[in-house]
Design brief:
Blueprint lengths: L14 H28 L1
Keywords: Membrane, Transmembrane, Transmembrane helix
Length: about 45
């Protein structure tokens, strides 16, 4: 199973860390969006 973001030569040296940071970034964005929607619903 090939990953679209990894080069064909091999995975980057800091692959797991980059994946963790990307997941954390998406989690923060989702939390911010949910918070904004919740504030709009409360108003």
């Amino acid at each position: 199973m090939k990953d679209c973001c990894e080069p064909a030569a091999g995975p980057p040296p800091r692959g797991p860390l980059r994946r963790l940071l990307t997941g954390l970034l998406y989690a923060v964005l989702a939390a911010a969006l949910g918070f904004v929607l919740w504030q709009q619903w409360q108003a």
